[in-house]
Design a protein that fits this description.
The chain has helices at 2-21, 64-77, 90-98, 111-119, 168-181, 190-196, 205-213, 224-228, 259-270, 272-280; strands spanning 53-60, 81-88, 105-107, 128-133, 135-139, 160-163, 198-202, 219-223, 234-237, 246-252. The chain folds into 2 domains: 53-132 and 247-280, 3-Layer(aba) Sandwich (D-Maltodextrin-Binding Protein, domain 2); 135-237, Periplasmic binding protein-like II (D-Maltodextrin-Binding Protein, domain 2), CATH 3.40.190. The chain contains 10 helices and 10 strands. Helix 2 links the parallel strand 1 (53-60) and strand 2. The protein is an alpha/beta fold. The longest helix is centred in the first third of the chain and has 20 residues, at 2-21. A 5-stranded mixed β-sheet has the order 2-1-3-10-4.
């Protein structure tokens, strides 16, 4: 039985050899067709892939959408690079960086927080602005308080949500209210009346947007870009003579784990492609 098995195996092997040596039949093609070309065969030796790198970017919460797209574009242009974002109020991010959190790039919604890092010698070089923004009043989709004008914000009993004064948007909002109080249309006590209606001071603009959208407040003040990203919200525009321009600076950090990559990302944000992304999200260019 064992000998029979070996003989059969030998026959199979010989059959395979003869089959391989036999001429291959040429397939008959229909008129007008051509022999398909194999595309899976490499024409050159495979190139080595770039070593994986992670770029960590700390950015103001109002940059979430724009920088999400920015990160995707930067990764596509730099194979092997992963961009990791940490979005929060600029003041929170500064505290984390000062306490040693590893980060390569910082993008702030104001100069005050960037200057704090400059003073602490935590910024690698001179920083520059890459975008600007403006403020806008947002209302819940159903507008239960029936607010129509900026003057309505001073009505007693309203529930207004703002960012904390330490947050860039919160600081800008209070400057805006002070500007309005200098105009006879609103009166010198306008800012005082509006601030008396504030029921919550949030840590970033995203919190204000979320709570107003859920009806937890009658009104809030956020950036124009945050308002436009929520089409269900109603808005009241703020005239330019009262509004405050938010300036967004960006810089590579002194203790960046990937300093070359950090500089490349800053350059990309300032480039024409990066600026196109910012414009797409409603930001205005820096002067």
């Amino acid at each position: 039985m064992k000998r029979l098995t070996l003989s059969f195996g030998l026959l199979v092997a010989l059959a395979m050899v003869f089959s391989a040596c036999a001429p291959t039949a040429t397939p008959t093609l229909a008129p007008g067709t051509s022999v398909p070309v194999a595309t899976s065969v490499p024409t050159s030796a495979p190139t080595s892939t770039a070593a994986p790198q992670t770029l960590t970017v700390f950015a103001a919460a109002s940059l979430t959408g724009a920088f999400g797209d920015m990160g995707n574009a930067f990764e596509a242009a730099n194979p092997g690079v992963t961009v990791k974002f940490s979005f929060a109020g600029s003041q929170i991010l500064v505290t984390q960086i000062e306490q040693g959190a590893p980060a390569d790039v910082f993008a702030s919604a104001d100069h005050k927080n960037m200057d704090a890092l400059v003073t602490a010698n935590l910024v690698a070089s001179d920083y520059g602005d890459f975008a600007t923004n403006l403020l806008e009043v947002i209302l819940p989709p159903n507008n239960p308080a029936n607010l129509r004008t900026l003057q309505d914000l001073a009505k007693p009993g309203l529930k207004i949500l703002l960012e904390d004064p330490s947050v860039p948007a919160g600081n800008y909002t209070r400057q805006m209210l002070a500007n309005m109080s200098k105009d006879p249309t609103y009166g010198p006590d306008f800012s005082t009346k509006v601030l008396a209606n504030v029921v919550s001071n949030e840590t970033d603009v995203k919190q204000v947007v979320a709570k107003v959208n859920q009806g937890e407040g009658d009104a809030g003040v956020v950036y124009v870009t945050d308002a436009s990203a929520q089409p269900d919200l109603k808005t009241i525009p703020i005239p330019s003579n009262f509004n405050v321009i938010a300036h967004y600076p960006i810089a590579a950090l002194e203790k960046a784990p990937n300093s070359d990559l950090a500089a490349a990302f800053v350059a990309y944000v300032l480039s024409a492609d990066g600026q196109a992304i910012m414009k797409n999200w409603g930001f205005s260019p820096a002067p």
